[in-house]
Amino acid sequence: MTSSLKDLITQALQDVVTILLADIDTGKTPSVVLTRPKQKEHGDYAVNIAMPLAGLLKQNPRQVAETILAQVQFPEAVASADIAGPGFINIKLKAGGETDILKDILQQGGSYGCVDNSKGEAVNLEFVSANPTGPMHVGHGRGAVVGDSLANLMNARGYKVHKEYYINDAGNQIGVLANSVWLRMQEFQGIEITFPDGAYPGDYIKEIAREVLDTHDFASFEAMDETRRAQKLGQLAVAANMTMIRNDLKEIGIEFNQYFSEKTLHQSGKVTQLIEKLEADKLIYTGTLPPPKGKEVIDYKPMEQRLFRTTDFGDDVDRPLMKQDGTATYFAADIAYHADKFERGFKHMIDIWGADHGGYITRVQAAMKALTGLEKQPEVLLVQMVNLTRNGVPFKMSKRAGTFVTLSEVVEEVGRDAVRFNFMTRRIESQFDFDLEAAKAKDAENPVYYVQYAHARIHAVLRKAEAEGVTQAKVEDVDTSLLTSDEASKLIKMLLAYPDMLDTAANRREPYRIATYIMQLAAAFHSFYHKNRVIMDDVALMQARLLLLKATAQVIKNALSLLGVSAPEAM
RNA sequence: GCGCCUGUAGCUCAGCUGGAUAGAGCAACGGACUUCUAAUCCGUAGGCCGCAGGUUCGAAUCCUGCCAGGCGCGCCA
What we know:
Largest sheet: 5 strands, parallel
CATH topology of the largest domain: Rossmann fold
Radius of gyration: 29 Å
Distance between the termini: 35 Å
Structural class: alpha/beta
Low-confidence stretches: none
Shape: globular
CATH superfamily of the largest domain: HUPs
Mean pLDDT: 91
Number of helices: 20
Number of domains: 3
Strand content: 5-15%
Number of strands: 15
């Protein structure tokens, strides 16, 4: 693609800055950044470069701005440039000056906004990683949707993203899971049981128990010793839960490149090797940790442990790698896992975690620094909690899981598009109050319908045009400079801003920006639609407006697809 | 006690890494369908940007200290 008008203007100004600073020894040259002013009286673009320059040149900003304007050579499409306020340069474009973008959009189609990623940096993106002890809950759903959209976004902006799910199929929880299933199996056999507090209460445990009984002989489990039985049932239950989780993910349109099992790390000896390596590097010592602050640990007893010197690498306390019984801690496996990613060639990792894992970031990064020398890896994005409500009232009960509302229940009730879009409308740092009734509402309260309606509406116009026998002109024959109404200009500016928005969103790992953008784009379209009739006698203008609509539909579709939301042509 | 996140209109949230008069939606009020989809649009009203200092030409944005809410703080994952 050739340079955009914005780039040309930026370059023209930057050239002048370079000349002005030629005789001055500055640390660095300030860079020109064009912004879109909020008030349209301030022109199409505004630039504040005179302000930072004023200090360096020891002149007042307005004077600097004048010097710049005297020397700058703007491209043809610039109509005027004025100095305003404390020293802003406001640039106005000729009417229809930027409308060529519409043709670019139609020519690029689905790839408008994207850049080639065939040689892009490989990024390992780990998200969801819900424990295989039950169905996904709504909080997992938020992480899943954010992660998948971020992957799409980063792939669109030049990275090569490898999506990975870490299965925590080792540890005590699997024993609890196995026991829960075993109890339900006995129950089905008419044996009286007491179901302990710590066990998993949900109905899905009964489903698994039923399935095991259907495919296996109960007596064979009875005959096993406890360890063997726990192992066997744990394996079966994890497999069943992973099938369920994959299905939950499929329902919202998410697939992973890789599912990575924690158990394999233990079996292959990677965890042991990791500990041996750290021992050899003298990064482990025997010590006693101080008691935890905050809520009092009632049965606290000081004890000696083998501790990893994570404090040498930025952590605030050293961390144990082995439990009292000699088995590895979750932390040990987790750093072995991240080290494994590194060995697989990923120098850049992003993990998406729930807010309750926030305290875990420093220690993993410290461990990674010790092991690989990488700074700030993995890059961790914390997604804050989701509070479910129904008509504003907190809502926590679930039929299937017993203690929490499952993602699939919510998807079933409000639909995939609504779940995906709504989860993307807020920054991950803010807690999310997800209201089931609001998410189901088919009105302006629900942003997903607002944007989908815009897309469907455009297609209604296109269908109407076709029905009336309008032959659409070739793209290159359309005179887009006829699009001069305020609403058209606003809409075109929105379309023009799309690639920059994506770039910001990708670099800052803020996929929610896409949702915010689509809502603004849809608003710009709806507004245009009401004031500018498309199908009309003035053929040239009609053709220009049809082109504008097609470009708008294309961008809405592109943006929605990054969020995994459909763009219906009729509603 | 310490760490991370949050605090913007009655409610839910934006605010493009310091810019010009802080913006949307919902709720309230008033308008717009014999015309391409009213799941829409236009208008009115609504703000000590949690509080107090500081940094500077300029602060919702950066720094410090408070206040409030969420999450976390030895062998769970």
